[in-house]
Fold these 4 entries.
Entry 1:
Amino acid sequence: MARYRVTPEKSRLWFEARSILHPIKAEAAGVGGTVEAELTTDGLDLKAAPRGKLEVDVDSIRTGNVLYDREIVRQLEVRKYPRIRGEIVEVKELDAGRYKIRGNLSVHGVSKRVEGEVKLRVLGDGSFEADGEQTFDIRDFGLTPPRILMLKVYPEVKVHAHIVGQKQS
């Protein structure tokens, strides 16, 4: 099975939460990890079960607003839980280039089974790009929806991932 290195400088996560006044958007660069899979020009060869591990440093999450960024660091207890980690456990093909992925997600010391859809593109150089979006309830990870000054934030956070993997030799 081929091993792919997730390229941190090309991989990103975007987060969107809602407050009573407006959306709160954040971004995290530097997503890293590895994926083991067999790729064809059309996508994944599922005869060999793909596996993978992804992670991002919590302190890389930025909103562009100092108050919001401090609250993220406080809520997620960055010193105690410095990384968000994901593990791919099972992959099923939905249709050409679309897959359902089941795995484990660890946030704030709590690991939960999650699933979602991913669109995969195999590039001409043998690398891949994968995009997916999922909404999570932060309460499932032991977090309380924050109040920033008088601003109430709702517990649902939409996460969009763009992952780029480069084949290792």
Entry 2:
Amino acid sequence: MLAVADGTVVETLNTLDEQLPGKLPDPATITLQNIDGNHVVIDIGNGMYAFYAHLQKGSVPVKKGQLVKRGQVLGKLGNTGNTSAPHLHFHVMDGASVLGSSGLPYEIDGFGLAGEVSTEKFAAATSLEGDWGEGRTKTVDPRKGQFPLDLNIVNFVAKTGAGKAE
């Protein structure tokens, strides 16, 4: 998982264990401190904060107060906190408090639309098992200045500071 912009780390959590995939944690174990799992919050300027949640235990290499650069590694995708499957929860918000801030609209510089998960298969699913990539297309459709829709399969390419894809 990579930083979306230059900024200053204002909060991290890196000590929570992974959940068993396919099952939500016992609600009695969820607190305000662990609901988002291992996470990073970055002040990206102009009153905006980037939030990355549900990261793997021990994978967050940054610390509070550290300056980060766009494209810098912030951690690995995980399954911590109130979640039933490994994924990245990302959003931009108007304050440093994860639960006390409002989300802000944003768009993604670029991604490749690589297909879509079948709505019927998703609705009929009783578990997370199976091949969720069946809807992949042979070609990837480049998209710029957009946001992927629900059930889209996307490819992201990291870019260096010079704009060169890695």
Entry 3:
Amino acid sequence: MAEFDIIELEGQRRVRMRIADESVRAEAGAMSHMSGQVEIFTPPPSPGAVMASLLSDEPMIRPRYHGTGEVLLEASFGGYHVFDVDGEPWVLERGAYWASDGRVKLGVHREPFSASFWAGDGLVNFQTKVSGRGRVVLNAPGPVEEVRLDNSRIAVEGKLVIARTLGLTYTVKRPTRSLLGYYLSREAMVRSFSGTGRVLICVTPFWSERLFKAVETRPRW
């Protein structure tokens, strides 16, 4: 099985993928360098991938790396999160996909029309869907928390949920019951996820975390 490591050097993080006669995928243009007997393959995109790319920011092609060796992806001041897909499909927020095991299948998921409209994502919103079995790496701006729902609901403001299991119901609604309460609360529309499944939430970016620590530890004169 391919190995995925998050390594850090001078404040920057990067993903290292180690393969032994197997394949991995990565976001188009994400490679920094590779070593060993590794070749890059770019299979033609499916019609669904072409349509999704035309209507969103998702790329048509995500290259495959096959062979034995190491592949290092570009560094970032943000962070990455590795999780396992174990048969249940996941929906990833735009720009969240970074790399995955070659056994993981990549597809396209279209969000409900009403949810896309009220969330400000346009009339049609396509997301990346991952399924099968294997590891997936997310490009996350900060630490990631997993929340499990058991026939329950969670509501978040903005695009804090960077991944969710496909079985959850996704809607966008007011955070209050009444329209007056909505205006008085000064809260934005919230994204609601309900049912039984898992969501990955990214709240605090790494750069904010470092800034807060720097403020806390600076000398007090």
Entry 4:
Amino acid sequence: MQALAGFTMRGRSQAALVASASAVFSLLVPLFGLISGAAVALVTLRRGLGEGAVVGGAAGLASGVLAFLALGSPLPAIGFAVALWLPVWILGVVLRHSRSLALTVQLGAIFGLVILAGVHLQSGSPASYWKEVLEPMRHTLVQGGVVDAARSETLIGEIARWMTGAFAAAFYFQSALALMLGRWWQALLYNPGGFGAEFRTFRVHPALGFLALGLFAVLLLQKEAMWAAELLLVLTPLLFLQGTAVVHGLVAIFGLSRAWLILFYLLLVFAMPQAEVVVASLGLADVWVNVRGKVASRAPRKE
């Protein structure tokens, strides 16, 4: 990763190449989208608003040419660039000036709210819109004998109810992760160990914790209140990141091996989504309990 970050910072053309090439690869492997966004974030964090915009624009132009040659239209690439690079570039500008990762990531939740508003404005019934989008998948499942027709209707209907919030949360979470990856690259090149120290102190504002609890209470009282479910889904990445920061903090406090972090991330992959719910719950509890602070105050001091 350090070599890739170093190559990105050699110049505009190298940065645009990393951003555009990884964006193309993300069509096959979605995780490459994080690398693409991180390249724009790194340049923005290190060299400023203008340079980040130039690199994003150059990468968008390159992607547009590729899309025109392959698809006959540059519009898919332009839309992709707006969705992938614009939010990360904005967050990079905010982080460069605020110097607060936690504040920037919390402000980034606005992108999730914009997505929610956009879907609701575009469609008076988002669930019906998603049912149409998911209909080909339902048809394939029925034809393949995976599920019967009657049950498939119920299943797709339930998924459609949650899709708007899930889509908004995923969009926001991807932007936040790309920003954090770019911040990590910056630390690797110019401030080794800096990102780890910064991330281990990551905390959301207590007001967001109260808001999450309030939304959860609304859902308990009224299960059909999808507006509360959608808002709660957008807040969940923040709580998940705080929970993850707690785990990193505890590993550092006790001086544990990195193998514990590897095990933690393996659990996130192989025990999803239950593991993610547990970590987000830990993050929510830490809003008030301050697990890291209490453990650090009681941990034996190193001589």
